[in-house]
Amino acid sequence: MTxxxxxxxxxxxxxxxxxxxxxVERTTVLDLPAGVTRLRxxxxxxxxxxxxLHAELTAEHAADVLDVRIVRTWTPRGPRPSPVDDSALRxxxxxxxxxxxxxxxxxxxLRARLGLLGRLAGDLMREIGEGTGYGETERxxxxxxLDRVDGxxxxxxxxLRAxxxxxxxxxxxxxxSQLALHRSEEDPAELVGHVELTVETAAAGPVGLRLSHLxxxxxxxxxxxxVLDGDSLTVETDAMVWQRTGEDWSGVRLTLSTARSxxxxxxPRIAEDRxxxxxxxxxxxxxxxxxxxxxxxxxxxxxxxxxxxxxxxGGEARVLKAPAPVSVPGDGRAHRVPxxxxxxxxxxxxxxSPELSPLVTQxxxxxxxxxxxxxxxxxDLVRGSGFTGRGTLDFTAVGAAAELAFGSRDDYRxxxxxxxxxxxxxxTQRTVVTRTVRLHVSRFSAPGESDGRTxxxxxxxxxxxVSAVEVRLHKDACSPPPDAVDAxxxxxxxxxxxxxxxxTVTLVYELSASAKVTGL
Length: 520
Known about the structure:
The protein is about 20% helix and about 45% strand. The protein is of the alpha+beta class. The strands form six sheets. Strands 1, 2, 4, 7, 10, 12 and 13 form a seven-stranded mixed β-sheet that branches. It has a six-stranded mixed β-sheet with strand order 19-16-15-22-25-24, with no helix packed on it. α1 packs antiparallel against α2 (about 140-185). The longest helix is centred in the first third of the chain and has 47 residues, at about 90-135.
């Protein structure tokens, strides 16, 4: 049994890209004789994981895989050419290296000279101090020596600055020349892998081969592009794919998955958790300790991380497929692959939360009509004036509502003023804290504008979790009363502003606590 000297080409036909690796699939048709045959296929990426290599044969007659393995070969760099045959680029690099070394020596000498002059100036100043103490006055000599030392220090410092400037420019030029030399003349060392396959067939004829394996240095992340056009929003879903597996993916069927094959699936350990009851002390019965704290109102999800985030799939593995064959070079750069696009009705509003920011932002809400889930990822925002910035889209199920912020508007100004008064009332000495919040909203309109706009203002009211503290909204003192107050204490107003209009919104609420409450 012999192995053919020339390897049989085995191109990549399909790729399943995961969160931090890729499953590469290769298919081909082999014309095999009857009996046992050893084949050499490839080349394949040297980063292929050996233990994930799997080969499968399909034929009309019996065909079995006896052995499959990856064999890697190392091709070292070729010998350097003789100095006589050096190219102009190599000679240029050599000249720049010599000049860089000479400038380094000049800089060292100049620094040593400046250090010597600094010590000389220190000795001269010490001599002047000692002579003055003894009553000596040699003003002309001391002035002459100080001027000479200062002049030499300025001269050598200027020469050192010139040398350092030339060193900086030379470093950039040398780096560019070395990079050009590396790309044009030097053959990099290469590690190449081939697949050695041993098969046994019952009869001669064509046999289909499907080979798959995992490979690192490949990943993908979702990305979006949202175009706002009047009352409609077009959302384009793309995949940003990076790969440096050692080979290009040309015309492959690309599948994108959020499965985490390397994630451990061990069940959680059950630990004993004991609950005990303890009588409260007399001091604890007399007082109720409370505190004001802030909490984010949001749904459960993964914690944010620095750097490149993972794929938020809502806890379930998701699979997306590219509608057409794609090509992804193995250069390690980001390549955008279109996946889907849909247009949905857009519900836009101008919203502002003055306690967090005085800016009025255009918020657009829409339904997910793509037919698949929208994974969390960055969104390029585009509207009538062109690209307006980049936002973030949260995980959105099929048919669920989502929202995007298209940036702030410069023709609005919101000023927030808050006042607080504290008083004790009644025989029980209840503490009453009254807070008054005034929101001043102004609209600056360009000449010729005549349309009115509605600005949605949101202001929060504390929510009490204990019966000893009560929160009450004074609707009679509010001007105007809030249009709605949700369970999280968010008061909402819809303020209509004509061109150049101004409005003031007043919110008044009080916190009432019994005398035994502390910490308010």
